[in-house]
Design a protein that fits this description.
single chain; 661 residues; alpha/beta; Rossmann fold; GMP Synthetase, Chain A, domain 3; 5-stranded parallel beta sheet; Acetoacetyl-CoA synthetase; Acac_CoA_synth; ATP binding; ligase
Length: 661
């Protein structure tokens, strides 16, 4: 093992670690709830002991957390965990609360009223438009009152076809305030993709923009909105948000008219497990799963993640590049939940220059910045130098997710941003709208490794027989419930699809579908999705390991590897590559790819064929897809292998039909 694999890339300053909210919470839980006292001798041991306590004493841990963050139950719970059975765990039975009330309480303090709640940046500009806490409360209060006047109440579904703009946050909070159920899609989704999601929900109201800006262009969506109105018979009202200045369609309500009144928000007090919002799986192989999460579950889980694992508080500015079609937008609002200012952005991640996101962070004084692993690697390939060219002096933490961040991405952060920045690579899922494993402000950062499992998350790697393994690749499982686990899927009354999704392989235990390695240090390495496993000669391999090596080569823009079991018992592993401009897939490049995989991974990782394709398919949130391609290669007709409405470029799949086995 090389020295850079065992020497941390970064160590937190001891004084800063001690002053972190996680360390303070640890001391509180030790004093009042029986958690092991911090020894202070070694951070890894301290956190490991605290984490073990948090999952072995779930009721004490979550009780401590709700007290620490002053969760306001208007009706107190009769227990913390009424039933720990998965699926179906019952959290805080009898309790009543409201998610939006916990967000907007930060605007109640007169000293905080005029400070920024949201700083919004539009594409091509670095000057933010500020929404203060008092203004946010007023707009939500006005809109919530109008929603009630329109007859929208607890249990009704409210949908939104909006980008990452302040109006989206206001609309969600107003929806939550009245007890309705929120669901959203980004406006770059086509009509079919949106209908696949919203038709399941039968919304009574739709917030819709007239268009959005991306890549230096304006994209009109009035035609799509008209189609949505025609195909959603449950709609009683449409609210027009004129981002491009367009007139409201006939019969639509105007956003400004609904949000202009001086009003104090009124919050419906709801059961802990009352639906807050519905998120969706990618839906690449069928209708997207409509994943229901609760007011209480999201409130306590996001307080934990934002307040402890990202160490966010009122003095912070929090930015995560995302769209309203990705769970990270919902997670961005967790910044508001702990009183931080959030930065919203509507536009391309790399326009007008590849370092556009870093420029936003610099211009708005972001302290905690999140992005995708793909963007970090794109910056590396574009040879941008944000740490040299921009003032990022206020930036103390960087989060990455969406796919595993390769070791080269870790190195680039510390080479090109700062040697003293905390890199919080995280992994979780839309399924829980949170992280199973991620950042810990008191722990060191090791090359290519996620710092640790999150508090309260009983994460293990299991082999095929259901036994925990360390320093071996295994299935990511969660052996005990987490409050933000879905309360179910919409239109799945018997829970059949829910159980099949997570509990079929190991009954009673959540199996997430990722390959991971838990190291002896307690860190975690993500290898990719286990449902598209590479299993060659009995050795399981993660596709992300191959992508990291292959895409390091400047001639290759993107790659996709598939492992296909053949009817004759053989195994075919092709590597599809999208070439950089001007590159050619000749014998020399093929040899270079094979040699890189052989020397940096193993001979088993060398593909049987290397095939150039013009483009690769992705989900609508930008993740490359493997399972539908594997199905097509195995002979499944394209129309049965994938839901075309879930793909960014369905035509990119047709190229794979000629390689069927």
């Amino acid at each position: 093992m090389s020295s850079d694999e065992i020497t941390p890339l970064w160590q937190p300053d001891p004084a800063r670690a001690t002053a972190s909210r996680l360390a303070a919470f640890h001391r509180f839980a030790a004093e009042y709830y029986g958690a092991p006292k911090p020894a202070g001798a070694k951070a890894e041991a301290d956190y490991a002991h605290f984490h073990r306590w948090s999952v072995e004493h779930l009721e004490d841990f979550w009780s401590a957390l709700t007290q620490w963050f002053d969760v306001r139950f208007t009706t107190p719970p009769t227990a913390v965990l009424g039933d720990a059975t998965m699926p179906g765990a019952e959290w805080f039975p009898g309790a009543r609360l409201n998610y939006a009330q916990h967000v907007l309480r930060h605007g109640e303090d007169p000293h905080n009223a005029d400070s920024p709640a949201i700083l919004h940046v539009e594409e091509g500009s670095e000057q933010p438009r500020v929404t203060t806490w008092s203004e946010l409360r007023r707009q939500v209060g006005s809109l919530a009152a109008e929603l009630r006047r329109l007859g929208v109440g607890p249990g009704d579904r409210v949908s939104a076809y909006v980008p990452n703009v302040p109006q989206a946050a206001v609309a969600l909070l107003a929806t939550a305030a009245v007890g309705a159920v929120w669901t959203s899609c980004a406006p770059d989704f086509g009509a079919r993709s949106v209908l696949d999601r919203f038709q399941q929900m039968e919304p009574v109201l739709l917030f819709a923009v007239d268009g959005y800006r991306y890549g230096g262009k304006e994209h009109d969506r009035t035609g799509v909105v008209a189609e949505l109105r025609g195909e959603l018979p449950s709609l009683r009202h449409v609210v027009h948000i004129p981002l491009l200045g367009g007139a409201a369609p006939e019969g639509a309500l105007e956003w400004e008219a609904l949000t202009s009144a001086p009003a104090v928000p009124v919050f419906e007090q709801l059961p802990f497990d009352h639906p807050l919002w519905v998120l969706y799986s990618s839906g690449t192989t069928g209708l997207p799963k409509a994943i229901v999460q609760s007011h209480g579950g999201i409130t306590v889980e996001h307080l934990k993640q934002a307040g402890l694992h990202l160490d966010l508080g009122p003095e912070d500015r929090f930015f995560w590049y995302t769209s309203t079609g990705w769970m990270m937008w919902n997670f961005l609002l967790a910044g508001l939940l702990v009183g931080a200012s959030i930065v919203t952005y509507d536009g391309s991640p790399g326009y007008p220059t590849p370092d556009a996101q870093w420029r936003i962070a610099a211009a708005t004084g972001v302290t905690v910045y999140g992005t995708s692993a793909a963007y970090v690697m794109a910056c590396k390939k574009a040879e941008v130098h944000p740490g040299r060219d921009l003032d990022l002096s206020k930036l103390r933490a960087i989060g990455t997710t969406g796919s595993p961040l390769p070791p080269d991405g870790f190195r680039w952060i510390y080479d090109e941003i700062s040697t003293d920045v905390w890199l919080a690579s995280v992994s979780g899922g839309t399924d829980v709208c949170s992280c199973f494993v991620g950042g810990v402000p008191t722990l060191p950062v090791y090359l290519g490794e996620i710092q640790a499992p999150s508090l309260g998350a009983a994460v293990e790697a299991w082999d095929a027989s259901g036994k925990p393994v360390v320093e071996e690749v295994g299935e990511l499982v969660v052996t005990k419930p987490i409050p933000s686990m879905p309360i179910g899927f919409w239109n799945d009354p018997e829970g059949v699809r829910y159980r099949e999704s997570y509990f079929e392989m190991f009954p009673g235990t959540w199996r997430h579908g990722d390959w991971i390695t838990v190291t002896e240090r307690g860190t975690v390495v993500i290898h990719g999705r286990s449902d598209s496993t590479l299993n060659r000669q009995g050795v399981r391999m993660g596709s992300s390991d191959i992508y990291e090596v292959v895409e390091r080569l400047p001639q290759i823009k993107e790659s996709l590897v598939i492992g296909l079991e053949e009817p004759n018992g053989g195994y075919w592993m092709p590597l599809f590559v999208v070439l950089a401009e001007g590159a050619e897939l000749d014998d020399a490049l093929r040899a270079e790819v094979r040699e890189a995989l052989r020397t940096q991974l193993s001979p088993r990782h060398v593909p049987d064929e290397i095939i150039a394709v013009p483009s690769l398919p992705h989900t609508l949130t930008g993740k490359r897809i493997e399972v539908p391609v594997k199905r097509i290669l195995g002979g499944t007709p394209l129309e049965k292998a994938v839901n075309p409405g879930s793909i960014d470029n369905p035509d990119s799949l047709r190229i794979f039909e000629q390689y069927r086995r």
